Amino acid sequence: MRRKGERGGAGQDPEAVLDLLYGTPPADFVARREELAAAAKAAGRAEDVRRIRAARRPTLAAWAANLLLRSRPEESERFLELGRALREAYQTLDADGIKALNEQRRTVVSALTGQAAALAQEAGHRLSDAARQDVDTTLRAVLADQDAADQWATGRLESALTPPSAFPRTTGASPKPAGRRAAPPPPKTPPKDELADRRRKREQETERRAQAERAQAELARARKAAEEAQRRLRDRRAAHAETDEQRRRAREHYDEAHRQVSDLERELERARDELRKAEREHRTAEERHRTAADALTEAEREAREAARTVEEPR
Fold first, then answer.
1. Helix count (H) and strand count (E) of the chain?
2. Among 169, 172, 181, which residue's Cα sits nearest to residue 212?
Protein backbone atom coordinates (compact mmCIF):
# COMPACT_ATOMS: atom_id res chain seq x y z
CA MET A 1 0.00 0.00 0.00
CA ARG A 2 1.46 3.34 -1.02
CA ARG A 3 1.64 6.19 1.44
CA LYS A 4 -0.25 9.23 0.20
CA GLY A 5 0.09 12.98 0.41
CA GLU A 6 3.84 13.50 0.16
CA ARG A 7 4.77 16.66 -1.67
CA GLY A 8 8.38 15.83 -2.36
CA GLY A 9 8.97 15.10 -6.04
CA ALA A 10 5.40 16.01 -6.99
CA GLY A 11 6.75 18.30 -9.66
CA GLN A 12 8.29 15.36 -11.57
CA ASP A 13 6.71 12.02 -10.57
CA PRO A 14 3.21 11.70 -12.12
CA GLU A 15 2.14 9.22 -9.42
CA ALA A 16 3.10 11.69 -6.70
CA VAL A 17 1.24 14.43 -8.58
CA LEU A 18 -1.92 12.30 -8.68
CA ASP A 19 -1.51 11.41 -5.00
CA LEU A 20 -1.26 15.10 -4.20
CA LEU A 21 -4.31 15.85 -6.34
CA TYR A 22 -6.50 13.19 -4.67
CA GLY A 23 -5.41 14.50 -1.28
CA THR A 24 -7.05 17.83 -2.15
CA PRO A 25 -10.56 18.43 -0.70
CA PRO A 26 -13.33 18.15 -3.34
CA ALA A 27 -14.13 21.87 -3.20
CA ASP A 28 -10.58 22.72 -4.34
CA PHE A 29 -10.04 19.68 -6.57
CA VAL A 30 -10.81 21.25 -9.97
CA ALA A 31 -8.67 24.35 -9.38
CA ARG A 32 -5.78 22.18 -8.09
CA ARG A 33 -6.11 19.84 -11.08
CA GLU A 34 -5.81 22.76 -13.51
CA GLU A 35 -2.82 24.13 -11.61
CA LEU A 36 -0.99 20.79 -11.70
CA ALA A 37 -1.90 20.22 -15.37
CA ALA A 38 -0.58 23.67 -16.27
CA ALA A 39 2.69 22.94 -14.45
CA ALA A 40 3.09 19.62 -16.29
CA LYS A 41 2.30 21.32 -19.61
CA ALA A 42 4.88 24.01 -18.94
CA ALA A 43 7.42 21.25 -18.26
CA GLY A 44 6.56 19.57 -21.58
CA ARG A 45 5.08 16.40 -19.99
CA ALA A 46 2.14 15.82 -22.33
CA GLU A 47 1.28 12.34 -21.01
CA ASP A 48 1.21 13.66 -17.43
CA VAL A 49 -1.13 16.44 -18.57
CA ARG A 50 -3.51 13.86 -20.05
CA ARG A 51 -3.51 11.74 -16.87
CA ILE A 52 -4.00 14.73 -14.58
CA ARG A 53 -6.88 16.12 -16.60
CA ALA A 54 -8.48 12.65 -16.73
CA ALA A 55 -8.71 12.61 -12.92
CA ARG A 56 -12.25 13.07 -11.65
CA ARG A 57 -13.23 14.96 -8.52
CA PRO A 58 -14.06 12.54 -5.67
CA THR A 59 -17.18 12.75 -3.59
CA LEU A 60 -16.75 13.99 -0.04
CA ALA A 61 -17.11 10.43 1.29
CA ALA A 62 -14.54 9.04 -1.18
CA TRP A 63 -12.13 11.85 -0.28
CA ALA A 64 -12.60 11.06 3.43
CA ALA A 65 -11.86 7.37 2.76
CA ASN A 66 -8.71 8.38 0.83
CA LEU A 67 -7.74 10.72 3.68
CA LEU A 68 -8.13 7.87 6.19
CA LEU A 69 -5.79 5.67 4.13
CA ARG A 70 -3.10 8.39 3.98
CA SER A 71 -3.40 9.57 7.58
CA ARG A 72 -3.65 6.14 9.25
CA PRO A 73 -1.36 3.89 7.17
CA GLU A 74 -0.71 1.25 9.84
CA GLU A 75 -4.38 0.93 10.81
CA SER A 76 -5.32 0.84 7.13
CA GLU A 77 -2.85 -1.99 6.48
CA ARG A 78 -4.27 -3.98 9.39
CA PHE A 79 -7.76 -3.34 8.02
CA LEU A 80 -6.74 -4.73 4.62
CA GLU A 81 -5.27 -7.78 6.36
CA LEU A 82 -8.57 -8.25 8.23
CA GLY A 83 -10.38 -8.24 4.88
CA ARG A 84 -8.05 -10.90 3.48
CA ALA A 85 -8.60 -13.05 6.57
CA LEU A 86 -12.38 -12.66 6.37
CA ARG A 87 -12.53 -13.58 2.70
CA GLU A 88 -10.32 -16.61 3.33
CA ALA A 89 -12.51 -17.71 6.25
CA TYR A 90 -15.65 -17.51 4.09
CA GLN A 91 -13.97 -19.41 1.28
CA THR A 92 -12.97 -22.22 3.62
CA LEU A 93 -16.27 -22.06 5.57
CA ASP A 94 -14.34 -21.71 8.83
CA ALA A 95 -17.35 -21.08 11.10
CA ASP A 96 -15.32 -20.21 14.20
CA GLY A 97 -13.05 -17.90 12.22
CA ILE A 98 -16.02 -16.21 10.53
CA LYS A 99 -17.72 -15.55 13.86
CA ALA A 100 -14.62 -14.07 15.47
CA LEU A 101 -13.70 -11.98 12.44
CA ASN A 102 -17.27 -10.71 11.96
CA GLU A 103 -17.29 -9.38 15.52
CA GLN A 104 -13.98 -7.67 14.83
CA ARG A 105 -15.29 -6.38 11.48
CA ARG A 106 -18.22 -4.48 12.99
CA THR A 107 -16.03 -2.85 15.63
CA VAL A 108 -13.24 -1.88 13.24
CA VAL A 109 -15.53 -0.51 10.51
CA SER A 110 -17.37 1.65 13.03
CA ALA A 111 -14.08 2.92 14.52
CA LEU A 112 -12.49 3.70 11.16
CA THR A 113 -15.63 5.46 9.92
CA GLY A 114 -15.46 7.66 13.01
CA GLN A 115 -11.77 8.35 12.37
CA ALA A 116 -12.47 9.31 8.75
CA ALA A 117 -15.19 11.73 9.89
CA ALA A 118 -12.85 13.23 12.51
CA LEU A 119 -10.03 13.66 9.98
CA ALA A 120 -12.41 15.34 7.52
CA GLN A 121 -13.65 17.62 10.31
CA GLU A 122 -10.06 18.57 11.19
CA ALA A 123 -9.51 19.45 7.53
CA GLY A 124 -12.52 21.78 7.65
CA HIS A 125 -15.11 19.52 5.99
CA ARG A 126 -17.85 18.00 8.15
CA LEU A 127 -19.35 14.74 6.88
CA SER A 128 -23.13 14.56 6.73
CA ASP A 129 -24.92 11.43 7.93
CA ALA A 130 -25.24 10.31 4.31
CA ALA A 131 -21.51 10.83 3.69
CA ARG A 132 -20.61 8.89 6.87
CA GLN A 133 -22.85 6.07 5.65
CA ASP A 134 -21.01 6.10 2.31
CA VAL A 135 -17.67 5.81 4.15
CA ASP A 136 -19.05 2.90 6.20
CA THR A 137 -20.33 1.21 3.02
CA THR A 138 -16.97 1.69 1.33
CA LEU A 139 -15.06 0.12 4.23
CA ARG A 140 -17.43 -2.86 4.31
CA ALA A 141 -16.87 -3.30 0.56
CA VAL A 142 -13.09 -3.27 1.16
CA LEU A 143 -13.48 -6.15 3.61
CA ALA A 144 -15.75 -8.23 1.38
CA ASP A 145 -14.28 -7.71 -2.08
CA GLN A 146 -10.68 -7.90 -3.28
CA ASP A 147 -11.26 -5.46 -6.16
CA ALA A 148 -12.71 -2.91 -3.74
CA ALA A 149 -9.71 -3.39 -1.44
CA ASP A 150 -7.34 -2.82 -4.36
CA GLN A 151 -9.20 0.35 -5.36
CA TRP A 152 -9.10 1.79 -1.84
CA ALA A 153 -5.42 0.92 -1.46
CA THR A 154 -4.58 3.31 -4.31
CA GLY A 155 -5.91 6.25 -2.29
CA ARG A 156 -7.67 7.58 -5.38
CA LEU A 157 -11.33 6.65 -4.91
CA GLU A 158 -13.73 8.90 -6.83
CA SER A 159 -16.99 7.61 -5.33
CA ALA A 160 -18.21 5.33 -2.57
CA LEU A 161 -17.85 1.57 -3.03
CA THR A 162 -20.73 -0.89 -2.68
CA PRO A 163 -20.16 -4.24 -0.93
CA PRO A 164 -21.40 -7.47 -2.54
CA SER A 165 -24.59 -9.01 -1.23
CA ALA A 166 -22.56 -11.74 0.47
CA PHE A 167 -18.94 -12.76 1.00
CA PRO A 168 -17.55 -14.84 -1.89
CA ARG A 169 -17.36 -18.55 -1.33
CA THR A 170 -15.72 -21.39 -3.20
CA THR A 171 -17.92 -23.48 -5.51
CA GLY A 172 -18.37 -27.20 -5.46
CA ALA A 173 -18.50 -29.41 -2.40
CA SER A 174 -18.30 -27.50 0.87
CA PRO A 175 -14.99 -28.09 2.63
CA LYS A 176 -15.02 -29.08 6.26
CA PRO A 177 -14.53 -26.37 8.91
CA ALA A 178 -10.84 -25.59 9.42
CA GLY A 179 -9.12 -27.47 12.25
CA ARG A 180 -11.80 -30.18 12.62
CA ARG A 181 -11.66 -33.88 11.83
CA ALA A 182 -14.46 -35.98 10.48
CA ALA A 183 -16.43 -37.66 13.25
CA PRO A 184 -16.08 -41.44 13.50
CA PRO A 185 -18.98 -43.49 12.20
CA PRO A 186 -21.74 -43.75 14.81
CA PRO A 187 -22.41 -47.03 16.49
CA LYS A 188 -25.39 -48.99 15.41
CA THR A 189 -27.26 -48.15 18.59
CA PRO A 190 -25.98 -44.73 19.74
CA PRO A 191 -26.54 -43.77 23.37
CA LYS A 192 -29.27 -41.31 24.27
CA ASP A 193 -26.75 -38.62 25.19
CA GLU A 194 -25.16 -38.88 21.77
CA LEU A 195 -28.55 -38.67 20.07
CA ALA A 196 -29.37 -35.58 22.10
CA ASP A 197 -25.99 -34.11 21.22
CA ARG A 198 -26.58 -34.75 17.52
CA ARG A 199 -30.01 -33.18 17.74
CA ARG A 200 -28.55 -30.16 19.49
CA LYS A 201 -25.88 -29.81 16.81
CA ARG A 202 -28.47 -30.07 14.07
CA GLU A 203 -30.51 -27.35 15.76
CA GLN A 204 -27.41 -25.19 16.08
CA GLU A 205 -26.55 -25.75 12.42
CA THR A 206 -30.12 -24.87 11.44
CA GLU A 207 -29.91 -21.70 13.52
CA ARG A 208 -26.54 -20.79 11.95
CA ARG A 209 -27.98 -21.26 8.51
CA ALA A 210 -30.99 -19.12 9.41
CA GLN A 211 -28.68 -16.43 10.76
CA ALA A 212 -26.60 -16.60 7.57
CA GLU A 213 -29.74 -16.27 5.46
CA ARG A 214 -30.92 -13.30 7.53
CA ALA A 215 -27.47 -11.74 7.21
CA GLN A 216 -27.51 -12.23 3.44
CA ALA A 217 -31.02 -10.75 3.25
CA GLU A 218 -29.85 -7.79 5.32
CA LEU A 219 -26.84 -7.33 3.05
CA ALA A 220 -29.13 -7.51 0.00
CA ARG A 221 -31.35 -4.81 1.48
CA ALA A 222 -28.32 -2.72 2.32
CA ARG A 223 -27.00 -3.12 -1.21
CA LYS A 224 -30.36 -2.13 -2.65
CA ALA A 225 -30.41 0.90 -0.35
CA ALA A 226 -26.87 1.77 -1.44
CA GLU A 227 -27.84 1.50 -5.10
CA GLU A 228 -30.85 3.73 -4.46
CA ALA A 229 -28.61 6.21 -2.66
CA GLN A 230 -26.23 6.17 -5.63
CA ARG A 231 -29.15 6.87 -7.95
CA ARG A 232 -30.28 9.78 -5.80
CA LEU A 233 -26.71 11.02 -5.74
CA ARG A 234 -26.54 10.95 -9.55
CA ASP A 235 -29.86 12.80 -9.74
CA ARG A 236 -28.67 15.41 -7.30
CA ARG A 237 -25.41 15.82 -9.17
CA ALA A 238 -27.34 16.38 -12.38
CA ALA A 239 -29.59 18.91 -10.64
CA HIS A 240 -26.53 20.60 -9.17
CA ALA A 241 -24.89 20.81 -12.60
CA GLU A 242 -28.07 22.34 -14.03
CA THR A 243 -28.33 24.94 -11.25
CA ASP A 244 -24.64 25.68 -11.63
CA GLU A 245 -25.17 26.41 -15.32
CA GLN A 246 -28.16 28.62 -14.47
CA ARG A 247 -26.05 30.43 -11.90
CA ARG A 248 -23.30 30.95 -14.48
CA ARG A 249 -25.75 32.41 -17.00
CA ALA A 250 -27.31 34.63 -14.33
CA ARG A 251 -23.85 35.86 -13.38
CA GLU A 252 -23.05 36.69 -16.99
CA HIS A 253 -26.38 38.55 -17.29
CA TYR A 254 -25.63 40.43 -14.08
CA ASP A 255 -22.13 41.37 -15.25
CA GLU A 256 -23.52 42.63 -18.58
CA ALA A 257 -26.26 44.64 -16.85
CA HIS A 258 -23.69 46.05 -14.43
CA ARG A 259 -21.48 47.08 -17.33
CA GLN A 260 -24.42 48.78 -19.05
CA VAL A 261 -25.34 50.61 -15.85
CA SER A 262 -21.73 51.76 -15.49
CA ASP A 263 -21.74 53.03 -19.08
CA LEU A 264 -25.07 54.83 -18.53
CA GLU A 265 -23.81 56.36 -15.31
CA ARG A 266 -20.76 57.71 -17.15
CA GLU A 267 -23.02 59.07 -19.90
CA LEU A 268 -25.27 60.64 -17.26
CA GLU A 269 -22.29 62.28 -15.59
CA ARG A 270 -21.10 63.68 -18.92
CA ALA A 271 -24.64 64.98 -19.63
CA ARG A 272 -24.72 66.62 -16.22
CA ASP A 273 -21.38 68.28 -16.93
CA GLU A 274 -22.78 69.56 -20.24
CA LEU A 275 -25.92 70.81 -18.43
CA ARG A 276 -23.87 72.66 -15.84
CA LYS A 277 -21.75 74.18 -18.62
CA ALA A 278 -24.87 75.24 -20.53
CA GLU A 279 -26.34 76.75 -17.39
CA ARG A 280 -23.20 78.83 -16.87
CA GLU A 281 -23.25 79.95 -20.48
CA HIS A 282 -26.95 80.81 -20.17
CA ARG A 283 -26.36 82.91 -17.05
CA THR A 284 -23.47 84.70 -18.77
CA ALA A 285 -25.62 85.37 -21.84
CA GLU A 286 -28.46 86.66 -19.63
CA GLU A 287 -26.11 89.04 -17.87
CA ARG A 288 -24.74 90.27 -21.18
CA HIS A 289 -28.26 90.68 -22.52
CA ARG A 290 -29.27 92.75 -19.50
CA THR A 291 -26.15 94.88 -19.85
CA ALA A 292 -26.84 95.41 -23.56
CA ALA A 293 -30.48 96.25 -22.81
CA ASP A 294 -29.43 98.80 -20.20
CA ALA A 295 -26.94 100.27 -22.66
CA LEU A 296 -29.64 100.42 -25.33
CA THR A 297 -32.04 102.15 -22.96
CA GLU A 298 -29.37 104.67 -22.04
CA ALA A 299 -28.52 105.25 -25.67
CA GLU A 300 -32.18 105.80 -26.53
CA ARG A 301 -32.52 108.27 -23.66
CA GLU A 302 -29.46 110.17 -24.80
CA ALA A 303 -30.77 110.20 -28.38
CA ARG A 304 -34.09 111.64 -27.26
CA GLU A 305 -32.39 114.33 -25.25
CA ALA A 306 -30.16 115.17 -28.19
CA ALA A 307 -33.18 115.35 -30.45
CA ARG A 308 -34.98 117.72 -28.11
CA THR A 309 -31.93 119.93 -27.97
CA VAL A 310 -31.84 120.17 -31.73
CA GLU A 311 -35.54 120.92 -32.01
CA GLU A 312 -35.67 123.65 -29.38
CA PRO A 313 -35.39 127.25 -30.84
CA ARG A 314 -32.28 129.06 -29.97
1. 9, 0
2. 169
